[in-house]
Amino acid sequence: MDETRPSAQLLLSAYAQGIFPMAHPEQEGRIYWYAPDPRAILPLDGLRISRRFRQTLRKKPFEIRFNTDFEGVIEACAEPRPGQPQTWISEGIKEVYTELHRLGFAHCVEAWEGDRLVGGLYGVALAGLFAGESMFHRATDASKICLVHLVERLNARGFSLLDVQFQTSHLERLGVIEISREAYEARLVEALKLECSFA
């Protein structure tokens, strides 16, 4: 088995068990598998929008699209960030998620400013689960606005679980909470019983 590029089938099986992959940049992109405890999720009725950000949303500063440039989004997410010269999004990760996109399981939300992609996020939809993988922005608030549109779509399509994997101070301000692995797995079981379509 290629330790730098899992198969699409293996990836879907892992998500159904609450496990996700990350590549280790210092080990030539070797894949490691994670099921953190606690696990970070964004309750679909718990997104926090500040007064200032609500004003930004009303202005509609970007055109929001779904699934029109998946490769552009994942490439942008893989770019090194300040203080992080390396990334867990390896070539193997990009390849398998792009395959999942072609198969209808991986999706993206994009923020456009004219013909320029200025923000986005991507993840995997499986039954009533959406597993958020990464996001990026090249303009202020672009990724946050994509998250708002993601939550709106998941609610409209009947999803029950938005997994964001790890907590950060930024995500906490948006309403992300941590739950035990046991509680996450219980929610996952219920989410996998649903019949939802992201597209």
Keywords:
alpha+beta; 7 helices
CATH architecture: 3-Layer(aba) Sandwich
Number of helices: 7
Q: Low-confidence stretches at least 5 residues in length (pLDDT < 50)?
A: none
* Mean model confidence by pLDDT: 95
The tally of beta strands, per DSSP, is 9
CATH topology: Aminopeptidase
Instruction: Please give the alpha-carbon distance between the first and last residues.
Output: 31 Å
What is the string of helix and strand elements?
Answer: HEEEHEHHEEEHEHEH
Estimated structural class: alpha+beta
Number of domains: 1
Spell out the CATH superfamily.
Answer: Leucyl/phenylalanyl-tRNA-protein transferase, C-terminal domain
Give a quick account of the main beta sheet: strands, pairing sense, barrel closure: 7 strands, mixed
| CATH class categorisation | Alpha Beta
Lateral strand order in the biggest sheet: 4-5-6-7-8-3-9
| Coarse shape | globular
Tell me the β content. 25-35%
Helix percentage = 25-40%
What is Rg? 16 Å
Keywords: Acyltransferase, Cytoplasm, Transferase
InterPro entries: Acyl_CoA_acyltransferase, Leu/Phe-tRNA_Trfase, Leu/Phe-tRNA_Trfase_C, Leu/Phe-tRNA_Trfase_N
Family: Belongs to the L/F-transferase family.
Protein name: Leucyl/phenylalanyl-tRNA--protein transferase
